Amino acid sequence: xxxxxxxxxxxxxxxxxxxxxxxxxxxxxxxxxxxxxxxxxxxxxxxxxxxxxxxxxxxxxxxxxxxxxxxxxxxxxxxxxxxxxxxxxxxxxxxxxxxxxxxxxxxxxxxxxxxxxxxxxxxxxxxxxxxxxxxxxxxxxxxxxxxxxxxxxxxxxxxxxxxxx
Length: 165
Known about the structure:
Layout: H1 2-82, H2 88-107, E1 110-112, E2 125-131, E3 140-146, E4 149-151, E5 154-157, E6 159-164
Parallel strand pairs: 2-6
Antiparallel strand pairs: 1-4, 3-6, 4-5
């Protein structure tokens, strides 16, 4: 009888050990799956952020290309608005078109680069001539041949300028 009880106890102990081992396997498997899930979630979040940055970058590049294509048109319209004519209505109409076109470009984020009276900065200005003028500061811009523009922090077109001293 005692032998049978020992045998039953051993079977119970062996069964408990097996159950505990299965729990440990399940726990290890759970932890592994949980770790994989967290890594995949982090990768997906990084992917979403990267995709958003790429979209913004592509939008900025396309906008910059379109605006750069329109700048010569803007230059010609500004020149046309400065021409004297006897027909004041015509001249006012051209000025109105220049204003509308300028506002449309501004809504896209285009900003003119300051030039005359500012110190020369090669990031924004392209020097096409140099003059000596004692009344001006060192590397001060005295004349602008062509307006420069930037879109956000990116220069779309450098200002063509004359630099003093």
